[in-house]
UniProtKB/TrEMBL annotation, chain B:
Name of this chain's protein: ATP synthase subunit c
A single GO cellular-component term on record: plasma membrane
Membrane topology, as annotated: Multi-pass membrane protein
Transmembrane segments: 12-33, 45-66
Function: F(1)F(0) ATP synthase produces ATP from ADP in the presence of a proton or sodium gradient. F-type ATPases consist of two structural domains, F(1) containing the extramembraneous catalytic core and F(0) containing the membrane proton channel, linked together by a central stalk and a peripheral stalk. During catalysis, ATP synthesis in the catalytic domain of F(1) is coupled via a rotary mechanism of the central stalk subunits to proton translocation. Key component of the F(0) channel; it plays a direct role in translocation across the membrane. A homomeric c-ring of between 10-14 subunits forms the central stalk rotor element with the F(1) delta and epsilon subunits.
Record-marked site positions (Reversibly protonated during proton transport): 54
Family: Belongs to the ATPase C chain family.
Keyword Membrane part of the UniProt annotation: yes
Length: 259, 67, 74
């Protein structure tokens, strides 16, 4: 039993239940809003980049310039600077990841859509699973299975009994904590951001229905909600960048030779 | 509104490590900015300080769930 | 050629820094979870209450040692 605030008609604060959206068609659980948003993002991204690359010319149009600067950012600032000389193989994956996450995050503040797809935890889980499989595959291909496992489990230059203490930590870091933190960081940021916006906008609306004194306070709640929307925009771009950057860092670590 | 006091306690306990991490990196950045060749000396110290401060923050996080 | 090399050096060192910070957090978290989890399990099994704390301290110590091995030692 918790304490209830605003006792008169009971303001219901936004909770995790606000993220369980009902299915759109019948009771088929595969037709909820996040699923449609994910499909919509794929359509939007492919249309945008096909249009921007179709009439490519030496003097770029505005659209071509926009498309190319996103691509250039991922290729030069993320892939090339982090991975090094073998980066071209991984650009398609990193580019897809970055644009997909960015578009789906931005759905959180686009009017009428207003739901960040990544605040449903299964989407980040799947993306992190892809990254997990890719960086382990690359490492095993590059180093061989046994040397790779040996590099993970046995730090050089440690007295033998200490391995009992350290090896579980290393294994857990590589196989559990890395994919888990990768996905949970994205999920938690989107979830908390959406909840924060809900609190301020719904709270402002509720204050507007109260007595005169409360009505006077409500514009502040709305103003804060709008300010937080811009803050959310920043967080959404940053999280898409961080997810891609960490993927690139893990791939770079898989390709790096013994340090 | 429902919740447990554990999370309030975790919020309070996170203030300390947050300030500590900020101070560690402020000192590291200004040290490297004044004397770029000192980077290799300062880097391990900054990272170890960061690890110690962060360990306390994570301690609070885990205890908030365990207790 | 030397220009390119020094650029490479700079890029490597700042990339190492970013990489190191993320992996430090990962090591600390998994150290706490693994050894704290073992302590928690032992608590459930033996009916004691102090082994969680002992396991967490052990895990935190071990992961700080690991961080020192990886990043602090020259």
């Amino acid at each position: 039993m918790g304490v209830r605030l605003a006792a008169d008609e009971g303001f219901k604060p936004p909770s995790t239940a606000d993220f369980n959206l009902p299915p759109v068609f019948g009771d088929n659980p595969f037709t909820t809003k996040p699923v449609f948003l994910a499909f919509l993002s794929v359509i939007l991204i492919s249309t945008f980049f096909i249009l921007s690359a179709r009439k490519a010319s030496i003097v770029p149009s505005k659209l071509q310039f926009a498309g190319e600067s996103v691509y250039g950012f991922v290729r030069n600032d993320l892939a090339r600077d982090v991975i090094g000389h073998e980066f071209m193989r991984f650009v398609p994956y990193l580019f897809t990841l970055f644009t997909f996450i960015l578009t789906n995050n931005l759905f959180g503040i686009i009017p009428f859509l207003q739901f960040p797809t990544m605040s449903r935890v299964s989407f980040p889980y799947v993306l992190a699973l892809f990254t997990f499989v890719i960086f382990h595959y690359v490492a095993i291909k590059h180093k061989g299975l046994m040397p790779y496992l040996k590099e993970i489990m046995f730090m050089p230059g440690v007295p033998k009994p200490v391995y009992v203490l350290l090896t579980p930590i290393e294994v857990a870091t590589y196989f559990i904590v890395r994919p888990l933190t990768l996905s949970l960081r994205l999920f938690a940021n989107m979830f908390a951001g959406h909840l924060l916006l809900l609190v301020f906008i719904l709270g402002g609306e509720h204050l507007l229905q109260g007595v005169v004194g409360l009505k006077l306070v409500s514009p502040f709640a709305f103003a804060f909600g709008i300010a937080l929307t811009f803050f959310e925009f920043m967080v959404q771009c940053l999280q898409a960048y961080i997810f891609t950057l960490l993927t690139a860092l893990y791939i770079a670590g898989a390709l790096a030779d013994e340090h | 509104m429902e919740g447990t006091l554990n999370l309030v306690g975790y919020g309070l306990s996170a203030i300390g490590p947050a300030i500590a991490t900020g101070m560690i990196f402020a000192a590291y950045i200004s040290g490297v900015a004044r004397q770029p060749e000192a980077r290799s000396v300062l880097q391990p110290i900054a990272f170890l300080g960061f690890a110690l401060a962060e360990a306390l923050a994570l301690f609070g996080l885990v205890l908030a769930f365990v207790l | 050629m030397s220009q390119k090399n020094s650029d490479d050096e700079k890029r490597k060192s700042s990339q190492n820094e970013e990489n190191a910070l993320w992996s430090i957090v990962g090591y600390l978290l998994s150290g706490l979870i693994i050894w704290g989890g073992i302590g928690w399990g032992l608590d459930r099994w033996l009916g004691t209450t102090y082994l969680v704390l002992a396991g967490m301290l052990l895990g935190a110590g071990a992961s700080i040692y690991l961080v020192w091995l990886r990043f602090g030692r020259d």
